[in-house]
Amino acid sequence: MAPSKRMTPAPPGACTMAQLQDESSRTDLLNRLKRAEGQLRGIQRMIESGEPCLDIASQMAAVRKALDSAYVRMTVCFMQQELRQKLGVSEAQVPELEHMLDDVQTLLGKVR
């Protein structure tokens, strides 16, 4: 029998973060993380085989960028989910919201 996870209740008045509910967004995020995991394993092999530090650093920068991109994507998906739910966005307004959040994702992607 697997051990059960004990959840500590949030203190009164605390804000609890919702989970990402859209299955395709979760799948996309997991795929991005699996690619980054593969890149990290490649870096480990590079270190073990004595590759030059400059090559290793280049791959580390690529992994950081991939993780930053996954974080931005998760944040934008969460914003979309919460805005649709909390503001009661109609189906007619969804394309406009998605376009705006695509712009937000592009802008956040340029911060790195």
Describe the structure.
With 112 residues, the protein is mainly α. It contains 3 helices and no strands. The longest helix has 35 residues, at 53-87. The mean pLDDT is 85.
Question: What is the string of helix and strand elements?
Answer: HHH
Distance between the termini: 44 Å
Radius of gyration: 19 Å
Overall pLDDT: 85
Number of strands: 0
Strand content: under 5%
Instruction: Using the alpha-carbon principal axes, give the shape.
Output: elongated
Low-confidence blocks of residues: none
Tally of separate helices = 3
The oligomeric state is single chain
**Structural class designation:** mainly alpha
* Main beta-sheet strand count, sense and barrel state: none
Report helical residue fraction: 55-70%
Précis, in short:
The protein is mainly α.
Search tags:
mainly alpha, 69% helix, 112 residues, 3 helices
Task: Describe the protein's topology.
Layout: H1 23-48, H2 53-87, H3 94-109
Helix pairs in contact: 1-2, 2-3
